[in-house]
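Hi! If you just cloned this repository, the fastest way to understand the data is to look at a raw example. We've pasted two of them here, unedited. The first protein comes first, obviously.
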Amino acid sequence: MNQLNEHGITHLRHVDLAVTDFETQRTFYKDTWGLTEQGRDGDLSYFAAEGSPEQYVIRLRRADEKRLDLISFGADSTQSVDALAQKLGSEGVQLVSEPGTLQTAGGGYGFRFFDIDGRTIEISTDVETRQHRAIEEGEAIPVRISHAVMNSNDPNRTRDFYANTLGFKLSDTLWGEHMGEMMHFMRCNDWHHSLAIARGPHTSVHHVSFEMRGLDEYMRGTGRVMRAGIKKIWGPGRHNAGNNTFSYFLDPSGNTMEYTTELEKIETDQWHPAVYDIADPMTQDQWGTADPMSEIIARDSFNAPDKGVFVAPPV
């Protein structure tokens, strides 16, 4: 893999959500979304993607308030974890925990900190992998977690934090005449983006995306979720930036979840980020099968203001 992150950050591991409707959400992720409940631990539930070696890609926590608990990224070594923690501390980034043995499923070694918007971010290494398998033809379940997109009311500041502090590279940007820069796609490996920052009214989860095996499996999964009566926000279609397909749904607690496939890999170090005008219909959907992007569609993914800003999750 080329273009490795200068601080040893390798990939997106998991996104951890606190929800008020725990049992409803467990049923949704197992029976409708196609993840495997890998384990239960009291008020925690861990969900794996069958095609991924990660212990889990979504963690649910039963809570009185809905919030993002944390986003976890992998690192290539304990040395990288230690060096990054020391760097962040010296730059005034607030550490939530010092590097040490992790108490969560799969163990490992890592630390947590608040990003510039107050999200809890975890960097970890040496986490045990799980037995995974090749997803078969026609099997419409997620292969892996693809990317996480977060709302920020100052997306350029957030982009700069991830670029300058954590070594993420900018892949592309969406721009609108009235709103300015609307979304920044950031990468830490050769996938077009593992993280994106969207312009929103407040800090919150915009969406979490899952890679499907191929176009047929992506469409079958999209249809299954639609038939289950889950609200589809947008799609199916194919974005320009990243060249990936999209179908967005609202999970029962109001977080947007996406099925995608064929996300672009960036094979060249001479990549020049493009700025795509959202007024061009091809920017949002090359196929023309999705409804045109509108304020109504956009508003669905603004989400509620996150209750977890600058508050570390209990676990």
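Ok, and the second one:
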Amino acid sequence: MTLSFLLLFSLFFIGCSSKPKQQTIRVAEVTRSIFYAPQYVALSEGFFEKEGINVELTTTWGGDKTMTTLLSDGADIALVGSETSIYVYAQGTTDPVINFAQLTQTDGTFLVSRNKVENFTWEHLKGSTFLGQRKGGMPQMVGEFVLKKHHIDPKQDLQLIQNIDFANIASAFASGTGDYVQLFEPQATLFEQQGIGHIVASFGSESGKVPYTVFMTKQSFLNENKDVIERYTKAIYEAQQWVAVHSNKEIAESISPFFEDTPLSLIETVVDRYKSQGSFATDPILDKTEWNNLQNIMDEAGELPKRVDYNILVNTEFAEKALQ
């Protein structure tokens, strides 16, 4: 009886101790978007919890605000465009921001026309008023890159508006500003359903692969919390693989708690749009080709302060371990 009790107690103790102690990590995301579906899957499906991580997620609405939050120790990890790490490095920081896990690999915006356009071509933008994104941010730089690719000078061939705050761009278009607007989902599809605009093109399909949205942290935090970063990246990779093999409906159902005011059918439509154009990275590795493409786009937009070597601001150690 005593031996059986001790054996049962030991098994119970081992079972309890095998569950990792939960550590809270503060994450600042640049916006709340279905574009980041794998992140929400990692949360809703318990992949972070399995790795002993309790994510405290805050939406900071804009690249500048997100990076300020990270640099001022208001967050441990930021989910934001890789260009922000280059801007910080160019300012001469002693504690650079390191990109360690990629979440999205294309631009996530769509071109929305106020009026329905039959047989759209990019030439239709000439002479129009184009409501773009914030100067220096990835959406705007990719937007200009794509326009130039189609032989449109964004400074000469159209009226470019880019002085409206990120959070107010959609409402500005809805109130009558601009013939065309560059929007993230689900706003683009929602406007189409409401008759406010019509999706005519995808910037993501046009721009090629870039490290558009990446998890990053300060070098000091990474040095002191390598185990946490490794487990965090592992959870992200598991979510990326989950998204790759599950249906659009299953993904929509998984992330719907993060979009309570968005109909499930709309979430599913948006997931399909992003998944079909390869926007969701299927692994967290940010490769050199993507890094160089990013800097080429920044250079083309006149926003690249200086070229930064891949190995300085990108650390793939944790992503590579996750794949193993």
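That's it. A detail worth noticing about the second one: The first strand starts at residue 23 and ends at 29.
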